[in-house]
C-alpha cells in the first residue's frame, strides 16, 4: 500500500519524472530555476550521521529559495536500522537508504555525499562511536568532502557540545564537522586530498537545533536565541505551486523503509540556526553575508555574469532555445576561467541548461537489463534536437574504444535512431555497490579506490558520449546505458543496465539450526547470467561437518533462470557455529557470490553481489513444552526461529485469544512492542494472566513507554524505562545463579552470552515488585548496573517472564546462547506441570 501511495505523490509533484528511473525532461520553469542557480555562486553543506537525520526543510530552502548549491553529507548509510518495507537488513538496508537519500535529493534539489563510516548500531557516546569508527578515516572523508564540494556554509544537525545526550553517531558528526572546518584549510592535513582538490576554508559553521534539543517546545520558545539566525522556511514558490515545507515533506517521505511517509505542511514556519564558528555575521539575516555570490566572485566571471544575468532577466518561457547563442558565448568564456573548481561546477550546470534549452533527447537503451562479461548487447540509440538551433552529431564514442562517426545535421524535431552492438569487456567487473566489494570492519567500509570515496553510488561503467556541435561549439554529453521497457499495466519503465557474473548461487536459508545431530537437506539456488550454463556446485564446509554429495551438476538453458540442487548436511557432534558456502564451477571459473535484487517503486532497481554463505549452528539444546502461541507486535522472526528448534508455533490474532484457545498451549510469546502496536491487546490481559495462573508461561518481549496501550502490563507491577545495553559484548552477571532459568533444562554459562550481535537489550524495566526475581545484571561502560533485562515471577501455577534482551536480533544471526536461554524460559515449571497433570489423571 505504502508503495503505490508514494508513487502517486511523486507523480503529482512538480517534478517531471514519473518514477525514480525515468529520465528528466524539464519544463521551461525548471530551466529558469536552473539558470537562477547557475547565477548564484555559493554553497551550503548540511552534516549529520544517518539517512533521515537531515532537515529537508532547510536543504530545500537553501536549494530552492537561496539558490545555493546544497549538499547533505550523511556520515553513514543507515545500515544499522530496521526495515519497514521488506526483508533487507544491514548492508542491504544501507543500499536502500542510500537510494532513498538520492530520491529525497532529487526532490529537494540537494546533492548527496557519504563517508566510509558504517552504521554499526546504537551507540550511547561519541567516545565509543569514534573508537569503533576509524576516527582518522572518517575525519579525512569529511575533509575530502569540504575540499571537493567547497561549501561556504556548513550546518550541523547535532550539537557537538552535548556528548551522551543523543546517539553517539550524531554527536560525532558534529564534532568531526567542527574539526574538519579548520583542518580542510591546512595542506599538511590529509595531504592527498589537499593535492587533488586544493585546501578550502568554509566561511562559517552553524548548528540547526530542533525543539527536542531543549526537551520541549516551551523550553525552546523561552531559550536565548540572540546567537541564532531566524529563517522562515515556510515560503511559497508560486512558480512551483508548492510551499517549501511541502517539498520538504515529499523529500523526507522518500525514507519509506523508516516509515517516514508523512503529511505535507504549509504556511510560515520558523527554523533557527545557531552561529558557531567562522566569520561573524555582519547582516543578521543573510548566512552568506560578506560572501560575494555573484559571478564577480571569480576572476573573469564578470563578463560571464553580464551575459547570464541578462538571460535570466529576459528569460523566454515560451521558447528557451532563443537563449542558446548567449549561453554558448558564456560557455566559451567559462572555458578560460582559471579557477578549476568553479570552472568544473559551472560548466557542468551550463552544459545541462544548454541541453535543456535545445530540448535535446539523448538516450541509449540496451536490449537487456543484465549482461555478462564478453556478451554482445544491442543498443538502441535515440538522438533528437527539439529546437531550430543547428546541432550536428559528430560521433558517438565510449571510453572503451567505441567510435562511431556520424557527422549528421539534426533536423528540428526529427528522431534519429541508431542500432549499434556493444561488447562487454571479458574482464568487466560486475555491478555492485563499491563499498560492499571488500569485507570491512564493524565500523568502516573498505574502499581502496580513493576516487570512489564519498560518492553515493558506483559510477556506471557503460555510457556513451554524444559529441555534438551546437551552433558550431563542440559539446559532449554522456549518457549511461539504460534498459527501457513497458508493461501493459504500468506503461513505460526504466531500470539500470548492469553487469552480472555468469553464475551466482545462494543457500535458501541464511541460518540453519540443528538442535540434534540429525542430518538436514539444504537447497542451493543457482542463477544463470547467460544462456547454456553448464557446470557443478560444491559446498565449502567446516571440517567437523559433512556434506553429501560432494558435487551436484547444474545445467541451465536460459539466462535469468534458476536451478535448485540439494545437499545433505551432517552436523558436528558438538555445539558449534560456523558457515557453509556454495561454490559454482563453470569451466575454469569459480563463482562464490550471491546475486541480490532490490526492487521498490520509489528507488531504482538495485543489484548487489555479496559473498554467498549460510550460518550453520549445531545446538546443544534441551527443551520442555511443545506448543507455543505467538502474538505479533512490531514484527520479529521469533516464531520462525522457534520452529527451527522444533517447537510447534501458532500465531494468534488478538481476537483469537480466548481461554479455550490458550488452553492448547504451553507458553505464549509476545512479539516485540506488542503493547505499543496492538491496541486491542490491553483487553486480553486478564485472559493472558489467567492462562499463567493455570500453569502456562508468558514471555513478553520489550515494549517502549511511548504509546503503551496497557495499564497493567504484567500481573505484578513493573515500570519500563529507557535503560539499554548497547555493547553486545557487555559483561553479563548472574544475579540468581541457582534459579531454574539459568539451570534447567540447559545449564547457562558465560559462554552463552558470547557472539551476541548489535546489543544486549533495550527498554529494560527499572522498577518491579518483589514478586519478580531479576536474573541478570549488565551495563554499558561507565553506567550503573541494569538489572531489569530478564525478570521472572511465579503467578499461580505458571510463570510470567518480561525481557528486554534482544532475542529478536540474536535468533536470525544463529546465536546459540540466545536459543538455549529462550528454551529455558519456555521450559520453566513444565516438569511440575506435567507431573501434576499425571497425578490428576
Ligand atoms: Zn540519526
Write a brief structural summary.
The protein is an alpha/beta fold and 841 residues long.
Topology of this protein?
Blueprint: H1 2-12, H2 28-38, E1 43-48, H3 56-66, E2 69-74, H4 91-108, E3 111-114, H5 126-132, H6 135-149, E4 153-156, H7 168-183, H8 191-197, E5 204-207, H9 217-222, E6 228-232, E7 236-237, E8 242-243, H10 244-252, E9 270-278, H11 301-313, H12 324-335, H13 340-357, E10 361-366, E11 370-371, E12 376-384, E13 391-397, E14 403-409, E15 416-423, E16 463-470, E17 473-487, E18 491-496, E19 498-499, E20 503-507, E21 511-514, E22 520-528, E23 533-540, E24 546-548, E25 551-556, E26 562-570, E27 576-586, E28 589-591, E29 593-598, E30 606-611, E31 614-618, E32 627-631, H14 638-644, E33 648-651, H15 659-662, E34 667-670, H16 674-677, H17 685-693, E35 697-700, E36 718-725, E37 733-734, E38 761-768, E39 773-774, E40 776-777, E41 790-795, E42 798-803, H18 807-810, H19 816-827, H20 830-840
Parallel strand pairs: 1-2, 1-4, 2-3, 4-5, 10-17, 11-19, 21-31, 32-33, 32-34, 34-35, 35-42
Antiparallel strand pairs: 5-9, 6-9, 7-8, 10-12, 12-15, 13-14, 13-16, 16-17, 17-18, 20-22, 22-26, 23-25, 23-27, 24-26, 27-28, 27-31, 29-30, 36-38, 37-40, 39-41, 41-42
Helix pairs in contact: 2-13, 3-10, 4-10, 5-7, 6-7, 11-12, 12-13
Bound molecules: zinc ion.
Residues 49-50, 53, 167, 170 line the site of zinc ion.
